[in-house]
C-alpha cells in the first residue's frame, strides 16, 4: 500500500484511537496488516501543519479592525526577532469593548470570553504590522490583567481564554509561552481584560 511510504518518515510508533499501538518495525514486516483507517492516520501525521492564517480561516475567526493607540505609545514594536505588543483590550468587531468587573459584573466564563476577544485584537495588530501571522514563530510571554473584585482569585482561568486561542492557532508548543495573570481594581475605560505580549518572529 502507498501509505507504507509514509511509515518510514515516522520514528517510534504510530498511534490511533481504535486499536493498539503499532510499532513502525511491525508495519514494515507485515504491511498487509495495515487497515485503511491506519493509513489515513499515517497520512495525517506526515502531512504539513496548517499555517496560522489557514487556522484562522478554518476556525471562522473574525479579527477586529485595529484601533489607534490611546496614549503616547506604539501598539506593536519590532526589535530584532521579537515583536513587543502593548496592552490590548477586548475589542469587538463593531469597535466597542467588553467592559465590567469579573467577580461582580462578569463571571469566569464571561471573563474568559473577554480574554479570547483580547487575543483576537492582538492578532489583528500583529497582522497589521507583520503582514501575515505566519511570520510569528512562537508566543514568548503574555501578561494578562483582569479587572476584578478584591475577593476574586481565578485570574489564570480568565486569561486562559487568550492562551487557548493562541494554542488553537499555533499549536500547544509554539502557541503557549510564559505567562502572568494578575488582578486590578480598575483598567482603562472599564475594560474587563488587558493583555500585552512578546512574540518571536521570522
Q: What does it look like?
A:
By secondary structure, the protein is an alpha+beta fold. It folds into two domains: 4-46, no CATH class; 54-201, RutC-like (60s Ribosomal Protein L30, Chain: A, 2-Layer Sandwich), CATH 3.30.1330.40. Helices cover 36% and strands 21% of the residues. The protein contains six helices and seven strands. The strands form two sheets. It has a five-stranded mixed beta sheet, with helices on one face. It has a two-stranded antiparallel ribbon with strand order 1-2. The protein is globular.
Helices, by number, come to 6
Q: Rg, please?
A: 21 Å
Level-1 CATH class name of the largest domain: Alpha Beta
- Count of DSSP E strands? 7
Main pleated sheet = 5 strands, mixed
* Mean pLDDT over all positions: 84
Spatially, the strands of the biggest sheet line up as 3-4-7-5-6
Amino acid at each position: 500500500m502507498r501509505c507504507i511510504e509514509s511509515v518510514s518518515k515516522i520514528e517510534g510508533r504510530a498511534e490511533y484511537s481504535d486499536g493498539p499501538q503499532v510499532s513502525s518495525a511491525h508495519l514494515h514486516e507485515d504491511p498487509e496488516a495495515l487497515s485503511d483507517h491506519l493509513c489515513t492516520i499515517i497520512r495525517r501525521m506526515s502531512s504539513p501543519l496548517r499555517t496560522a492564517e489557514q487556522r484562522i480561516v478554518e476556525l471562522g475567526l473574525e479579527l477586529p479592525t485595529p484601533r489607534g493607540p490611546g496614549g503616547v505609545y506604539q501598539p506593536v514594536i519590532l526589535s530584532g526577532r521579537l515583536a513587543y505588543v502593548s496592552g490590548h483590550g477586548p475589542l469587538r468587531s463593531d469597535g466597542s469593548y467588553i467592559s465590567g468587573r469579573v467577580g461582580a459584573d462578569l463571571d469566569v466564563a464571561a471573563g474568559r470570553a473577554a480574554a479570547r476577544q483580547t487575543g483576537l485584537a492582538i492578532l489583528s495588530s500583529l497582522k497589521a504590522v507583520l503582514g501575515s501571522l505566519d511570520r510569528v514563530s512562537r508566543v514568548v510571554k503574555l501578561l494578562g490583567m483582569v479587572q476584578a473584585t478584591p475577593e476574586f482569585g481565578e485570574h489564570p482561568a480568565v486569561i486562559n481564554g487568550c492562551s487557548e486561542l493562541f494554542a488553537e492557532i499555533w499549536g500547544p508548543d509554539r502557541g503557549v509561552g510564559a505567562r502572568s495573570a494578575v488582578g486590578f481594581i480598575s483598567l482603562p475605560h472599564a475594560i474587563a481584560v488587558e493583555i500585552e505580549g512578546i512574540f518571536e518572529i521570522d
